[in-house]
Amino acid sequence: MAFDGAWKVDRNDNYEKFMETMGVNIMKRKLGAHDNLKITIQQDGNKFIVKESSNFRTIDIEFTLGVSFEYSLADGTELTGSWNLEGNKLVGTFTRKDNGKALKAYREIVGDELVQTYVYEGVEAKRFFKKC
After folding, report:
1. Taking Cα atoms as reference points, which of 10, 36, 16, 11 lies closest to residue 28?
2. Predicted TM-score (pTM) above 0.85
């Protein structure tokens, strides 16, 4: 699938505002905007292994499409939810454990980039990744 491979963050759009809305403090927002995130995605049918490596942490996330799992963001925010494939787009629907609010995430290939879109409390942010 087109998502397979290693991707490195190239640029962000509205990411600091998104993190502020999520309740991330200013110091972590500044660091998070320059985290040098690299994502490696492997897909085998409905199963995915995603390795996230940044200045702050390296974790492996394994999930099956449509199956709920737990995940912690880099700032420690805990989520539960699932990813689904809708056309050529991965759509994540997550709920924060601390306040029950919804976080939507999307991953799609646009041209030669992986675009991750996040939506929380009406604030949308995008992160653009290039293959590495």
Report:
1. 16
2. yes
Longest dimension (CA), the chain: 40
Phi-psi region at 50: left, alpha or beta (left = phi > 0; alpha = psi -120 to 50): beta
Mean residue pLDDT of the chain comes to: 95
Q: Among 8, 114, 106, 109, which residue's Cα sits nearest to residue 54?
A: 8
pLDDT over threshold 70, residue 92: yes
* Closest by CA position to 18, among listed 130, 121, 131, 128: 121
pLDDT band, residue 1 (cuts 50/70/90): low
**pLDDT at 28 > cutoff 90:** no
CA dist., res. 42 & res. 1, Å (int): 9
